[in-house]
Specification:
The protein is α/β, with parallel strands linked by helices. It has helices at residues 11-22, 38-42, 57-64, 82-103, 127-141, 177-188, 207-211; strands at residues 2-6, 27-32, 47-50, 69-72, 107-111, 146-152, 154-156, 163-167, 174-176, 196-202, 205-206. The strands form two sheets. It has a nine-stranded mixed β-sheet with strand order 3-2-1-4-5-6-10-8-11, with helices on both faces. Helix 4 (82-103) links the parallel strand 4 (69-72) and strand 5.
Length: 214
């Protein structure tokens, strides 16, 4: 399977590219917006495409034309304002879904945020972030794509444990970014995750086993 990773230069995205390239089942297509970001992925043997997520749907569809699945891990980051969050986390996500459909790619995995499907759990200090994630998820659910929506808890840079807790609703907790990446790759191999949206935090159940409980 050829997998286009949108947001490949982000912290989760870099883990996803590496794990896909280390696997025997898939090949990564790393989408980056700066030419200088290409070398690190090319060194891993990944195909790279130079496309700005704030560009056109046609440009993104061109990047997806040789893909069998799209993984959306892009985010505006914690140092930007509401405007950039809306353009990347919401509009960028929706454009990516439209581009996948245009390119004939059915499988779409997105990284959202824990609890955003409940307004009373939206982040009080950045409700626009929760809103962007929520409405991107809703759009994906109605897109007709074979989607998986992963809503991780607080992201940390600890080494992955390979074990998580998943459910439609969970209390907020932390999870290593590496484990989120592992869950993304595992979801690509598990048709049981198609049409599923779930919260995920660190836990005691091996990732592949946990996904089968959904």
């Amino acid at each position: 399977m050829n997998v286009l990773i949108i947001g490949s230069n982000g912290q989760i995205g870099q883990h996803v590219v590496r794990k896909i390239q280390d696997s025997n089942e898939h090949n990564a297509i790393a989408m980056v917006r700066k030419k200088e970001q290409m070398a690190q992925f090319e060194e891993q043997g990944a195909k790279t495409v130079l496309v700005d997520l704030e560009g056109s749907i046609d440009d993104i569809a061109g990047a997806a034309k040789s893909a069998d699945a799209v993984v959306f891990t892009a985010g505006s980051g914690g140092h930007t304002g509401a405007d950039k969050t809306m353009m990347i986390d919401l509009d960028g996500a929706i454009k990516s879904m439209e581009a996948a459909k245009q390119a004939g790619v059915k499988r779409f995995v997105i990284v959202s945020a824990i609890g955003v499907h409940h307004r009373d759990k939206w982040m009080s200090n950045a409700p626009y972030y929760s809103a962007a994630k929520y409405y991107a998820d809703v759009w994906l659910e109605k897109s007709g794509l074979d989607y998986t929506i992963i809503r991780p808890g607080g992201l940390v840079n600890d080494p992955g444990t390979g074990k998580v807790k998943v459910a439609v609703d969970l209390e907020r907790g932390q999870i290593p970014r590496e484990d989120v990446a592992s869950a993304i790759v595992a979801s690509l191999d598990d048709v049981h995750t198609i049409g599923k949206a779930f919260d995920m935090i660190g836990g005691e159940t091996p990732i592949e086993e946990a996904l089968k409980t959904l």
